[in-house]
Structures are given as structure tokens and as C-alpha cells.
Amino acid sequence: MAEVGEVSEGCRLPVLRRNQENEDEWPLAEILSVKDISGRKLFYVHYIDFNKRLDEWVTHDRLDLKKIQFPKKEAKTPTKNGLPGSRPSSPERDVRKSLDLSLQPASAPASGKSLPIPVQITLRFNVPREREAVPEEASQPLASSSCGQPAHRNTKRKVEVVSPATPVPVTTETTQASVFPQNGSARRAVAAQPGRKRKSNCLGTDEDSQDSSDGIPSAPRMTGSLVSDRSHDDIITRMKNIECIELGRHRLKPWYFSPYPQELTALPVLYLCEFCLKYGKSLKCLQRHLTKCDLRHPPGNEIYRKGTISFFEIDGRKNKSYSQNLCLLAKCFLDHKTLYYDTDPFLFYVMTEYDCKGFHIVGYFSKEKESTEDYNVACILTLPPYQRRGYGKLLIEFSYELSKVEGKTGTPEKPLSDLGLLSYRSYWSQTILEILMNLKSENGERPQITINEISEITSIKKEDVISTLQYLNLINYYKGQYILTLSEDIVDGHERAMLKRILRIDSKCLHFTPKDWSKRGKW
After folding, report:
1. pLDDT tens digits, residue range 181-202?
2. Were 258 and a residue from 50, 60, 227, 331 both cysteine, which residue would form a disulfide, CB within 3.0 to 4.6 Å?
3. Torsion over CA of 507, 512, 513 and 519, rounded to 10 degrees?
4. Catalytic-labelled residue, pool 302, 413, 463, 495
5. Are 375 and 463 in contact (CB under 8 A)?
6. How far apart are the first and last CA of the chain?
7. Quick check: is 92 catalytic?
8. Whole-prediction pTM value?
């Protein structure tokens, strides 16, 4: 068995931790750093296949030294100047290298090109007065007399999806690769043969995907939030550097690294003004600041208020200090985007909750003033004390409400974080199902709706609409046509979910005039 003194950076071994059920488990972890405090050794560990927000400092008694894996050393290779060189390698680096070799595509598509989707798809949505069985021949018009048949529990409502052009089935791989990217893999779209039946599978995602939206790393942009590349992570940015943040009446435990000044990282608590988000090193500094700070709400224009919920629009150029402080705070809870101090190209929409003391920040999202790729969200975050209360969907709904006023369709920047992905999936599913279930027949004819119409009504991009239908496993290719089936389970599940969704955006309470940033010299 190895000694504690032999444990170094790069080693892997099982580490004791408590799971959500409060049970002990021993997942494999990698040692990222070692420090000695008053003769007591502490080890910073990253649990393999777990999110980085679970990383922590542990003592030696939680390490299983019997199963330690020491880092391997690579073979010495000549460097550019002809001198031999070697560096220690962790097991993770070896695995990543082998994966990179095995995942090299034969021919990669050009960066920035979207994967193929049908040009035009018409959904013929059949809504009977009662839920009844649909005749077998989906390609034939349904008889109007079938509307009066009694409903059965196991019946399904079918939607005909007819393409006027030559039918090319939308495969799960085609659309999901562009919407929900997989980590480290570049999937190619394979067009299915006409007449061949395809069954959509539920989406399997890597929730910590760090690649570009089409699986091919793209060149860095000078505007917008840049997706962080894990291959360039150093040991500092992989470790949490802030122990605790006090924001108003809440104390927050950060999940990830954030580039606050180095002298603040050794403090047990970092104090933030909840109105201007300026940071201080002590409670006394914060109290002294509050006597001078006149803000009781975020700077900028209040463009929405209903009840105690308000939204403020903040220009990253006009309110640079606040925007930078907001980015520093957000980086504590967002790992998939690289922080830029250049906030000029961004607008920030901050959601607040009002009480007698002022407007308290709940969450925010940012968006580019000019986006060439129809992005309506760059970063989005609900602060931990307000999570699992419906505020995340409210932020998403508000972002699409702005897109409706602008007359555009929008989509969030990819990749999404694990929590962001879950929120967007849920919002897209509920919004699209709400549209389909509320369709009513006119003149006794069965209503029809197209993908374009769904996109125009909701401002959700067409690719996201199609991917959501496939994720819900609704769309199938049957006898030369697309058939969309709404089962009783999906309908009942949607109705239950909508009953729980109390917080909604009221468009009548929105006072927003979009600006044409392309006509402005410098934002």
C-alpha cells in the first residue's frame, strides 16, 4: 500500500464521498493539487465522470491508497531544439489521446455549416372532438364521421407530416448533432432512403460537452462568449478558487473557478453588494460601501414588471463596471463559457425580485447586440438560492418574448451546460406541445400547421423545433409520410407539468423597443 507522502498531482484513486441519498460511495478521482496546512495535508480531487462543481478538498483518511494509480511518464522525444524532453502523464490524458485518434473523421464538414434538414415540412394535425383511434391508412384523409367515436385510454392522436418535395426523413443524428452536441465526436448526417421507416431514439447527451455545435472546433470569435476548450485548461482554472460568497441575505458556495483578484481567493468569505455587485474583502468594507452606494436596483432600464418580478436591460458598454462584476459572479456557476472583460458587444437582462429593501438579483441572461447566427442568449444563469422554483424557464420564456418583439427566431449558444440543457429541453417541449394541443378545427376540417408556423408563433428556431419533436419520440416516417403521434402519456404528462408552471411572462407588461445596432457606429 502506498504512503500518503507518495500521493501527488495526477494520481488516481477511489475517494470517499456522500451521494444524494446520503450513502457512502468510492468513485474514482484524480488528484489535481496538494497543499499542507499546519502539517496537515489536503488533496483537491476531481471525481471522474462527475461534474466539476463536485470537486473538493479532502483529507488523507478519505483516500483509498490500496488502489492508487500513479501517473505514467511519456517516452522521451526530441524537442524542436533537438533536446530530449519528457513530462508526467495522467491516465486521463492517455485515454483522451486514444479517443482523439479513434474519433478523427474521414472528411470533416466546413465549420459553420448547418447539417441538412428538410426544406419544408407540413404537419397535418388531427384534433378530434374526443380522443379516438386514427385509421390505419395515415396517407388517406380521415373521415369526418370518425370524430364522433368514443375515446379509449390507449388510443393515440396522429399528426400527418407531409413534405411537398421528395421526402428525406429527418434522422435523429442529423438534427440532434447540431442542437445537442456530443463531446468529442463529429457525427455525419446520413440521409435515409425514401420509404424506409426510421424510429427516433431518445437523445443521449454528454451534458458537459465542450465542443462546437457541429462537433468541429471552430476558430475563436472576437465577439460573443467563447466556448472554453478543455484541452487548454491549466491546473489553476480547473480548481475552485473562492470558498464562499455572501450576496445579500444569501451565502453561496461557488461551483467553478472565477478570475477574481488573487488577493481575494484566500479569504473565507467574499462579500458582494447585491445591487451593484462590487466585491469587498470584509464585512466592514461592505458596510462602508453600502453607506455610499445609492443603487437599489440594477442599473439600466426596467422593461418588465409584474407583481414582484422585474427585468432590467443593461448595456455592457454604458454600464461596464456592473457588467464585468456580473460576469465574475456568473463564472462561479458557469463552466462552459470563457469570460471576457470586453462587455461592450453584449446586452444583459437581469431578473429581480422586489421587496421593501430593493430589487434583489435572481438570475440573468446575456445576448449579443448583433448576432450573425440568430443567438438570442449567450449565457444564462439562475442563482442557486432561486433554482428549482421556475425562474429558469421564466428567463428562457422572456428571451423568446424579446425575439417575438424583434420579429426573429432565436436559439441559445451551444453547447449548453447540463442544467441549461435540461431547462431548454423542458421549455421547448412544453411550448410546442401547448401549440399542438390548442389547435382547433375550422369549418369541420382538420387543422394543419407547418414547422415554419410553429417557429414563427414561438420564435423557436426550426432546428430546435425538429430536434424537440425527435427528442420526444413523436416523429416517425411511415408509408412515405411523416407521422407525428401524441400518446395519452405525453398529453397527460404535459398537462401535469403545465399545472405546476405558475410563473409565466405576460407580454402586456413588457415595454421594450428593439434597437438596430447595425446602424450604430460603436454600439
Report:
1. 333 333 333 333 333 333 333 3
2. 331
3. -120
4. 413
5. no
6. 63
7. no
8. 0.70
